[in-house]
Amino acid sequence: MKRNLKYRLCVSLCTIAWLCTSFVSCQSEEETIVDEPFVVKNIEYVFEEGDGESMFEQELDTVVYVNQGNQSRYVEWRPYDGSYIETTFSSNAPNAFTWKTEGDTIMVKDVFIFNGEPYANDAGYIPYLNETVQRTPNVSIKDGTTLHPDTKLTCTGTIIFKKVVATYLLDIEGVYTGTLQTIKGKITKTEPYSLHSEAVYEDL
Question: Domain map of the chain by residue range?
């Protein structure tokens, strides 16, 4: 009877010890997954099936200058003032945008095209966000002319935009464990490519 009691007591203690060990192990693993911050190590852009470049046109607002005075005056037209650059990141990966600390803006290298292939731009960075980000291009082009008395100038134009769809591979690393993960998704970028403008003079 005493042997049986000792056996049962031994089994019970072993079971409790195993449960405690399992609980601590699971808790530690869960804490590592949830709490560990990640940092960006690298981003790469490639063309896969369905990716590539395309063009589309957008007409500019018509600008009209009228000189009803008796002296000539100089006028300027800045056709690129209405242009923009848009970038959008998207991904089906469950942790594509949840690995970041809430409220932080992560900057990654921008995409550019060289010889028909996408590359990461070491000189340009954009926010890694699951939304469309629009910014003004760093382009300063203006047309200037002298408008004579009793004349009207009508300026029209069309901007050709280039749209790029590429696949991105974002490498992130865990700060504590050094765990490496690669997130795959798409980037869509739209930017001005060329301009066609026309200025027409008329007498009043």
Answer: 1-35, 37-203
CA distance 35 to 32: 6
Supply the mean pLDDT for the chain: 83
Whole-number pLDDT of residue 165: 98
C-alpha dist (Å) from residue 113 to 50, 116, 160 = 16, 6, 16
Closest by CA to 160, choosing from 112, 192, 137, 138, is 192
How would you label 101-113 residue by residue, b for 16+ Cβ within 10 Å and e otherwise? eeeeebebbbbbb
At 137, the amino acid letter reads: P
Assign domain 37-203 one CATH number from 1.10.540, 2.40.50, 2.170.15, 1.10.10: 2.170.15
